[in-house]
Amino acid sequence: MLSWFKKTYHDLPDFWLAYDAKFESKITPPHRYVVLDTETTGFDTKNDRILSIGAVTVFNQTINVDNTLEIFLQQDVFNPKTVAIHGILKDDDELDTISELEALKLFLVYIGNAILVAHHAHFDITMINNALNRHGLPKLKNKVLDTGYLFKKSRIRSNLINQQENYSLDAVADALSVTIQDRHTAIGDAYITALVFLKLKASLAKLKKIKEEDLIKIAAIL
Questions:
Q1: Are 140 and 16 in contact (CB under 8 A)?
Q2: Tell me, what's the pLDDT at 80?
Q3: Which of 58, 76, 147, 187 is the most exposed place for a label (fewest CB within 10 A)?
C-alpha cells in the first residue's frame, strides 16, 4: 500500500549518496557482517543520545581485528546516572570526540552495505536512525540480525529457553561460554557480540536450522 506520509528527501549529501550506491548490487554469500554496539545517555530513544559507537567486521567466519571502528561523540546531552555503566564522562580530555554528523559519516563509510549485527538490535538501530533523522538523512538501508533472536532460535527445542525473555548479552555469552571483557564499552560489547554471533552461526548450521545463505533471508530492515 502506498503511504501518503512517506518522507521525501532532497539534495542529500555526497557521503549519503555514496553509501546509498553500495546497495545497487545484490548481496551474495559470503556475506560481510558488521557487528556493532552503542553506548548512550539512556534508553529513551527519542531524547537520549549516542555517546560512542563500536563496530567490528566479520567475514569468512573470522573477526577482522585489524579493521574496527570506535567513535566517541561530543556530548550535547549528559546523564550523570549512566556514567556508572559506561564510564564516559562529560568533556573527558582523554577522549577524542567528534560531532554527531561526523560520527555518522564515518559509520556509514565503515558499514557500507554489510549486514549489521547487534544484541537487542532494535535499540541501537533506532538510536542511529534518530541521529540520521536529526541531520535530515534517511534511515539505514542495511539488513540487521539480532543475536538475541538467533540465540532463541538456536535453543528453540530446549525446555530451558523462554521465548518471551529478552536475554542480556551477559546471559547469552555465559550460555555460550564466551569470555566477557571490556563490558559496557561500545567496542568491547561489539567484540563480545561478534564472538556470540560466530558461535550461534556454527550452532545453527550444526542443527541444520540456518545456513550461511539463509541468514540474509531472516535479516530485516529496522
A1: no
A2: 61
A3: 76
How wide is the angle at C-alpha 121 spanned by C-alphas 115 and 126, nearest 5°?
100
Cα separation values, 53 from 13, 14, 45, Å: 22, 22, 15
Could you tell me if 152 and 163 are in contact, meaning their C-beta atoms sit under 8 angstroms apart? yes
Average pLDDT rounded to a whole number, residues 161-180: 84
What rounded mean pLDDT belongs to the chain? Answer: 86
Strand 32-40, strand 115-118: pairing: parallel
Neighbours of 190 (CB within 10 A): 27
State the pLDDT confidence band at 84, using cuts at 50, 70 and 90: very low
Per-residue model confidence (pLDDT) at position 1: 44
Q: 164, 213 in Cβ contact below 8 A?
A: no
3-state secondary structure the chain: CCCCCCCCCCCCCHHHHHHHHCCCCCCCCCCEEEEEEEEECCCCCCCCCEEEEEEEEEECCEEEEEEEEEEEECCCCCCHHHHHHHCCCCCCCCCCEECHHHHHHHHHHHHCCCEEEECCHHHHHHHHHHHHHHCCCCCCCCCEEEHHHHHHHHCCCCCCCCCCCCCCHHHHHHHCCCCCCCCCCHHHHHHHHHHHHHHHHHHHHHCCCCCHHHHHHHCECC
Contacts of 87 (CB under 8 A, 6+ apart): 184, 185
The CA distance from 24 to 64, in Å, is 25
